[in-house]
Amino acid sequence: MTKRIISGTAALLLSASSVQFLSSSAAEGMAQDKPTCYFRINETEDITFDGEVYTIDRSSFNSEGYKIPVEVYYYDPANSSWDVNPKWKCANHFLKLADLTNPQNPFIPYAFAEVNEEGAFVKNLATIMTSIDEEYNTMAFKCYNASLANRSPFTSYGEETDSYMLTSFNAVFSPSSPYGEYEIYFLTESEDYEDQRYSTAARTIDGERTVVVPYVESIKIRLTGFILGDVNNDGAIDASDASDTLKEYASLSVGNSRSFDENQMKAGDIDENGSIDASDASSILRYYAYLSTTENALPFSEFLAE
Ligand SMILES: [Ca+2]
Ligand SMILES: [Ca+2]
After folding, report:
1. C-alpha distances out from residue 137 to 41, 91, 216, 297, Å
2. Contact between residue 84 and residue 92 where contact means Cβ atoms under 8 Å apart
3. Ligand 2 center to 60 CA (angstroms)
4. Which strand (E) or helix (H) includes residue 28?
5. Of 56, 90, 89, 86, residue with least CA distance to 72
6. Ligand 2 centroid vs 231 CA: distance in angstroms?
7. Is 135 exposed, middle or buried (0-12, 13-18, 19+ CB in 10 A)?
């Protein structure tokens, strides 16, 4: 666990998990031995971390959205694992799980990599399988000792099993993603259908083989920034946004106070004159009609400039 202190981000994760770890170990006795699966996103110019939530603003998006590289870690305090099966999910399909890597192909240093005497990576005991389920937006990674006769634990490449990542993937925001919080979490029970696989780890400790569901830590990613015209923040610009805008205008004009929040105000004030009115609603309708009849439609702001 020591190497997790290397990055500031990880240190916060570590302190949070250690507290949890100690309190639950006190309560559960031997359960303190269980391994933990967790994610890490490296902070960049675009992505910040406040100790609990990663934040990215829509202004960092390009026309394809935004790819966030995510690393997956596995910490086994007993260093005794020979079959590691994390499985994770994002229930919100605006954030797609993509590009799961197999660190043996091509070889990169990973949790259970081994090197030969010349220092070159060798194919070690671990056999790796990766799978992505686009329908449920889940990913599974399996790293196991394929020799039935030999259930001896992997050698970890670093000092600890999480000195290096287990695998990595991209969490990809689509351009039309609504603002709000997105969570990526490990599955610890079947969720979408009966007998669905979930995260497990098999270990051998003092000659005894056990299979456990590891401790897990999810990550939260907050997307900020509005989409012009998407007043109800559902990822599409359509007639309901125009009608919400019109309703707000009607309500304001009879003296009611504002019901739109700051983002809705900006999303609905199409002509940027500081108020919500009928002309904003009609612009949204015009753009919606254009969208429904045009392939490769221009973004709203460019459509307005036409
Ligand atoms: Ca909408
Ligand atoms: Ca306006």
Report:
1. 19, 7, 18, 27
2. no
3. 25
4. helix 8-28
5. 86
6. 13
7. exposed
Q: Are 298 and 306 in contact (CB under 8 A)?
A: yes
Kindly report the backbone phi and psi dihedral angles of residue 289, in degrees, each rounded to the nearest multiple of 5, phi listed first.
-60, -40
Nearest ligand atom owner, CA of 281: 2
Give 242 Cα–ligand 1 centroid separation in angstroms.
9
pTM of the model: 0.85
Coil, helix or strand at residue 162: coil
Domain ranges for the chain: 2-224, 239-305
User: For 119-161, what is each residue's pLDDT tens digit?
Assistant: 788 776 689 999 999 999 999 999 998 776 678 889 899 999 9
Give pLDDT tens digits for 232-270.
Answer: 999 999 999 999 999 999 999 999 999 999 999 999 999
Ligand closest to Cα of 229 equals 1
Distance 179 CA to ligand 2 centre (A): 21
CB 262 within 8 A of CB 297: no
Bond preceding residue 178 cis, omega within 30 of 0: no
Give the three-class secondary structure for 44.
Answer: coil
Q: How far is the CA of 300 from the centre of ligand 1 (A)?
A: 13
Decide yes or no: CATH 2.60.40.1120 for domain 2-224. Answer: no
Q: Tokens 């675009």 appear where?
A: 46
| Separation of CA 243 and ligand 1 centre (Å) | 10
Q: How far is the CA of 235 from the centre of ligand 1 (A)?
A: 6
Distance CA 231, CA 284 (A): 10
3-state secondary structure 231-251: CCCCCCCCHHHHHHHHHHHHH
